[in-house]
Amino acid sequence: MDCRCLAETLVRMATKIATWIFIALATVIAAMHSAAVLAGGATPKAEDILGRAAQYQREFRAGDMAVVPDYVAMLEAATRAEPENADLWYAMGRAYLLQGARAMLAGGNPADAMPAMQKGPAALKRALQINPDHPLALAQLGGVQALMTSMLNQPALATQGVADMNRAAQLAPDSTMVRLTRAFLGLSLPDSLRNHASEFADLDFLIEGAEWGAAADYVRILRGDLFFETGQPAQARADYRSVAGAGSAATITANKRLLALDQGGVAMADIKALRTAAGAQCAMCHGR
């Protein structure tokens, strides 16, 4: 394979990876948290911008793809006006990631995803230059870095990404977004980078504090899958049963899990499929 073909292959691989990462982090995880978390200590004008950024996230999640250019332009202007505001740079990073998500969805231009892949992490790094202890920037940058570099066989960077997510959880142990990022990304990492204790701790935290309706049921199934994966079928069955009678959209999945247990066990392919969907399908967590 010549250099040109190799480069084209790497671009296609990176673009495919970006599809999941952008949608998982930019639309699901970021949209589940309010701008109030970002606005502590921000100027009144910055608070308004962060509030509008959160609104753009909600509008995008509701299907309004047309908000992306205004969303990005607003934060580009805001970071120029307040170049030392870590919260604005963090929001800028999320906006670029969402711009990448838009590029990969129907009607978008996939070629636009690659620049967003570069700009998003760069903005998050700028936030961390200003405030090295910004937990949300650490969590999101760590998640993107861990997943992408592990898939591109860059173990040192992947390990650093995991370390950044862990540090974010230490800085903000009660942050839903930080714990959600580490939980969803951690479950999708290669076995060599995973930490089952952290995964259980994050899923427990999310279940205990969840106020998102059907999302909590899917998190219980994710925890049941982790119980099964770690050789604890009785605990897995208990989680599946708690959802099977909930009457939510997750009930069908829970009943399939219970049937699979009765027939010998849950297939890892089904477990991995749900973990991918949990990141990629906003409607699954938020309802239609």
Q: Could you explain the architecture of this structure?
A:
- By secondary structure, this protein is mainly alpha-helical.
- It has a domain at 210-288.
- It has 14 helices and no strands.
- The radius of gyration is 19 Å and the shape is globular.
- Residues 1-39 and 280-288 have low confidence and may be disordered.
In short:
The protein has helices spanning 3-29, 44-61, 68-81, 86-104, 113-130, 135-151, 155-171, 176-187, 196-209, 214-229, 233-244, 251-262, 268-280, 282-286. The chain has 288 residues and is an all-alpha fold. It starts with a helix and ends with a helix.
Largest sheet: none
Gyration radius from CA atoms, angstroms? 19 Å
As residue ranges, the low-confidence spans are 1-39, 280-288
Which band does the percent of strand residues land in? under 5%
Q: What keywords describe this structure?
A:
288 residues, mainly alpha, disordered C terminus
List the SSEs and their pairings.
Elements: H1 3-29, H2 44-61, H3 68-81, H4 86-104, H5 113-130, H6 135-151, H7 155-171, H8 176-187, H9 196-209, H10 214-229, H11 233-244, H12 251-262, H13 268-280, H14 282-286
